[in-house]
Amino acid sequence: MNSRLPPLILISVGVALLLFQIYHLPLVLLVLPILLSIVAVLSQYFLGRNNIISDTVNKHQIFEIKSNNRTFTGAVLKISGRIEVDKNNVGFQKELENLMETIGRRDVGFEYYVITNLSKKKASSALVIIKECSSCEDDILNEVRDLQDISKAVSPHLHLEISPTSEKSIPVPTSWGNLGYAKVYHKIIDSPTNLSLSNDYDIELGEMKTDLTYVKTGIKLADLTRHIGIFGSTGSGKSTTASILIKRLYERGYKSIVLDWHGEYIDKLKFLNIRNQDNIFKINPLRLGNIEDIVEILGDVLNLTDPQKFLLYTVLIRIRKVGKFDLKTLIRILRSVDETSNWMREVKYGLLRKIYLLFVGDAKKIFDNQIEKMDPNELLNSVIDLSFISNLRLRRIYSMFIIKIISDYYIRNKPSQNALLVIEEAHNYFHKDNEFLEKLITEVRKFGLGLCIISQSPSSITPEVLKNTNTKIIHSIKSDFDKKILAESLSLDLSLYNAMDKLEIGEAIISAPNIKIPVIIKIKM
Ligand SMILES: Nc1ncnc2c1ncn2[C@@H]1O[C@H](COP(=O)(O)OP(=O)(O)OP(=O)(O)O)[C@@H](O)[C@H]1O
């Protein structure tokens, strides 16, 4: 009860008695002011009481607050961070910011508060939602479900769970959640961007983030032959992305050939033929198409000097004339070259020393002089495991010969259906100018062969090759130099540039002819 009430009544009664004594007034005039005083005091008491919260009820974890004849209904959602067993570096703070930004743009009649409780040496956060309405439990539960869906999309590691509130108080969280800390920024949120994101794709790759949720996206089949580049630091998700792409192509009846530098696709692409050391695709290097390309490939990998390249060229022409396509004949012809000068002797023995690699060790497993015809069809829809070839130069020569066999097949036969040649650790091939590879990347597109170039070191790939990959999928990349090269090649804005090293595993910036501006997508396994 109001503590001022008794003295006021006493004063009123005293004044009335005084007036009664002085003016001999009728009794009614004594009672009237007393009654008026009591009414005034009581009305003040009751009106005053109406200014504070009159009641808080809690129905099925939904609270209701009545104040000044208005009713507010809401719920408290505990925010907790979910750490997955194999991921310990989850960006909770970034996800919380995403969530707040997204919720801040909602306009469905709710007020939202993020409350961070700091007590018992522990910080924890909760999202309080309130709407002015009564008997609207369903509205509140619907909003809770919507918020949980939004959270799943924009902050996959944060979990919103409705939690009980105390019956008689405005909800103030006590020990909610296991989130380390939560900063609630005073941020002015831009009005929702009206980005007209193109969603015209044939091969689904994942989902891109929009204002409120994620939208599925991918690439067009027609863009396969305009070549694809997949870049990212080790473990960022490159080979998983490539495998998803290959699998989706396979399901559509498209063929892929994977040059698997480290043998990491065998388990991922079990539905393709596996070409490994038990099932080697053998090559006769001397029967490979035009001589210029063979000289270019060997010259590049074996670091042949120009005179050595020329000598090799003349020897290969003589082999064709002789019609004996074996490496022994090559050595015999090379040995028979006149040593007319010291210079010639040096060139000849220098070349012999370098091509020695083609006759020893693993070369004996991968090259076969007896083979007359190599059937490229045996390579389509295959993973070619290169990891058993221990000499890296020999590994490069073998895989470049395979590239040659496949590209020659496409150029000559122009098969009706496009295919994708996936080149892992592409910096091992495209690190310096090489006429054969440059010709390859500019020409094969016309014949239905697309290249998918994968590398953790895009700065080691020649600018010409980088420029020729029209679709780029960039996973998290740490090196500033690599970031700069890619950002320049895509004209990335500052926010995407800054995001490049913060992308989570499986997230990537994608730029493709069917997607108007580069966006971040989450590749879906
Ligand atoms: N989109 C994704 N969704 C979920 N997990 C993923 C995704 N992409 C990759 N991962 C996981 O991340 C790990 C590394 O992926 P992946 O091997 O594809 O990376 P990488 O960039 O090819 O690595 P490296 O350069 O070492 O070959 C794997 O355990 C894989 O399962």
TrEMBL record:
Q: Which chemical reaction does it catalyze?
A: ATP + H2O = ADP + phosphate + H(+); Couples ATP hydrolysis with the unwinding of duplex DNA by translocating in the 3'-5' direction
**Keywords for this protein:** ATP-binding, Membrane, Nucleotide-binding, Transmembrane, Transmembrane helix
Identify the InterPro entries for this entry.
HerA-like (IPR008571), HerA_central (IPR002789), P-loop_NTPase (IPR027417)
Q: What is this protein called?
A: ATP-binding protein
Is Membrane included in the keywords of this UniProt record? yes
Specify the Helicase HerA central domain's residue ranges. 203-402
Q: One MF term from GO for this chain?
A: 5'-3' DNA helicase activity
**Family under the similarity heading:** Belongs to the HerA family.
The record's Pfam families line, in alphabetical order, gives: DUF87 (PF01935)
Q: Does the keyword Transmembrane apply?
A: yes
Source organism phylogeny: Archaea, Thermoproteota, Thermoprotei, Sulfolobales, Sulfolobaceae
Q: From what organism does this protein derive?
A: Metallosphaera tengchongensis
Regions crossing the membrane: 7-23, 29-47
